[in-house]
Amino acid sequence: MFEALLDDFVVRALLAGVGLALVTGPTGCIIVWRRLAYFGETVAHSALLGVALAIVLDLHLAIGIFCIASIVVLLMFVLERRETLPTDTLLGLLAHGGLASGLVILSFFPTMRLDLQALLFGDILGVSRTDIVLVWLGGAAALAVLAWIWRALVTATVSVDIAVVEGLKPERARLVFGFLVAAIIAVAVKLVGVLLVVALLIIPAATARRFATSPEGMAIVAAVAGVVSVVGGLYASAELDTPSGPSIVVTALILFILTRLHWRGV
């Protein structure tokens, strides 16, 4: 019966989307606290270059994206330490350079059947059973890694010096978190696309910020907000015949606006 249920593409989309939201919510909290939204955009934009690498080397799409995204994270980490340019300038160079390079390389494969719209905006309705397994097992691993570096990241958000004194190794935690974001984006690109994946990281976390009384509480609320966005977005997509990925993000945005209005008593 369960296998028959998985044959329904909407159910597969729900399972994949909910699994992703449970990870992007808590991860997005760190991004919001540490003002890393542009960093997330940079890693996401490098995904097209990762797609090109996967095609050239005949790799799985997620592996190619993760490899390139990890290289971008390492480059950012090294360049920041040298302090040759402002951080936002470095992020801009890497983001647009990676995006443009990926598009140029992909142009050399005109016969390759590649849906750029799906890469940019996602194709959550096209997920397979293998994708669902990847999302949930990968998500469990990602949450385990996040739990491992959570205290170091939260403490360093308040004060890097305190984190160093307590022996939490904040620089190592920051680098590991960068690789974690790269892995999440590699998996999420197929679901919500390059242009929308960071929105799913940021908006639920921003929604949760008003209601949380602790970092862990905010992470839980953000995960719930992400799940509600996925369910609501897929329902709206089915009812209104709109693109699924953008519908999920728009639902997340509406939820954010409604919670802000409620908080202000409007």
Task: Describe the overall structure.
With 266 residues, this protein is mainly alpha-helical. Helices cover 81% and strands 0% of the residues. It is built from 13 helices and no strands. The chain has helices at 2-6, 9-33, 37-45, 47-57, 61-82, 87-106, 116-121, 129-158, 160-165, 170-192, 197-209, 215-240, 244-263. Helix 2 runs parallel beside helix 8 and helix 5 (61-82) runs antiparallel to helix 10 (170-192). The protein is globular and about 55 Å long. It starts with a helix and ends with a helix.
Number of helical segments with 4 or more residues: 13
Radius of gyration: 18 Å
**How would you sum up the major sheet?**
none
Structure classification: mainly alpha
Which features characterize this protein?
globular, 0% strand, 13 helices, 266 residues
Task: Write a concise synopsis of the structure shown.
With 266 residues, the protein is mainly α. The chain is built from 13 helices and no strands.
